[in-house]
């Protein structure tokens, strides 16, 4: 690429970001063009803290899990001392991938190509047939910033991670700790490739304007999400009254148990945008099941009642999670290509819960498996639509305010990157 071509390329990106109209969806190229995908990797996934796993996936020394963050393969593992570590999943010899997809356990990380061997601390322990002056200390695995927050694992590829994450972690962790997610066990982990841009996956999650397409979820998830008294449609009045009664009961329970529940919503005015709130569920109010009753007989964290509604956490740029009395569900969004995205969903239960005795996997996974499949089809439809030359950005409804917050937050990150 010549200097003039690079300047023209940058100008196009600047102009597209500058044209973004608040309250409206993004222009088509943001979702379809390789140049915007590459910019997203640089400005968002290459610089910010990303949710990639749960501590329950790496419970013991030597346990590991891998993740693909755009072009960056990363391994998260528990070192011999029990601490969290993350490294670029690339051998320092000739670049071979060290560990394949999935999860496992190792004593050392051994490259399957030429048997270079690394400890769980990333240090090179053995490199066959090297000359006498070879210094193994110069060839340890390249580290990635990693930290746990209430049982959730985040990584950052940047040399200098965003400074505000410490504050966000300190405010979020008290909501998570009562559920003891660090000690939980993985009941299931499911990867779903969605045929759409990662932003469409995130935007779809940030609104319930489409939730009539989720009949399983709407049995326990109140359909009034995003509405206020001022804009509540008449057909939702009965559901809203039911929600107010459940909300009053839930707040009394939270107060009695000392569980933080207040809404904190800082989605677009900081680098690490987030939203957290504990809220009521419909029907039995215990879990995401067809009748709202608990899917697992053993409560997370040993809390004395299963009727806790749900704790919802949204984090920019790539995650959300729900914690109910008997289990937790985490979601990580990872870009694969301009029009393809991996959604990784993980279900956590009490560490002593026995499959087939304390919980039925089909019941545990039913609601969110159905919801994920429905959302994947909606995202694919949206991707086809924004790829059309006829597409022009349309206005958001009032209940889509979190989508607007996400797009405002996202374009701010692009402006930062383009101004560097």
TrEMBL record:
<dbReference type="InterPro" id="IPR017941">
    <property type="entry name" value="Rieske_2Fe-2S"/>
</dbReference>
<keyword id="KW-0001">2Fe-2S</keyword>
<protein>
    <submittedName>
        <fullName>Aromatic ring-hydroxylating dioxygenase subunit alpha</fullName>
    </submittedName>
</protein>
<dbReference type="GO" id="GO:0051213">
    <property type="term" value="F:dioxygenase activity"/>
</dbReference>
<keyword id="KW-0408">Iron</keyword>
<dbReference type="InterPro" id="IPR015879">
    <property type="entry name" value="Ring_hydroxy_dOase_asu_C_dom"/>
</dbReference>
<keyword id="KW-0411">Iron-sulfur</keyword>
<feature type="domain" description="Rieske">
    <location>
        <begin position="49"/>
        <end position="155"/>
    </location>
</feature>
<dbReference type="Pfam" id="PF00355">
    <property type="entry name" value="Rieske"/>
</dbReference>
<dbReference type="Pfam" id="PF00848">
    <property type="entry name" value="Ring_hydroxyl_A"/>
</dbReference>
<keyword id="KW-0479">Metal-binding</keyword>
<dbReference type="InterPro" id="IPR036922">
    <property type="entry name" value="Rieske_2Fe-2S_sf"/>
</dbReference>
<keyword id="KW-0560">Oxidoreductase</keyword>
<dbReference type="InterPro" id="IPR001663">
    <property type="entry name" value="Rng_hydr_dOase-A"/>
</dbReference>
<keyword id="KW-0223">Dioxygenase</keyword>
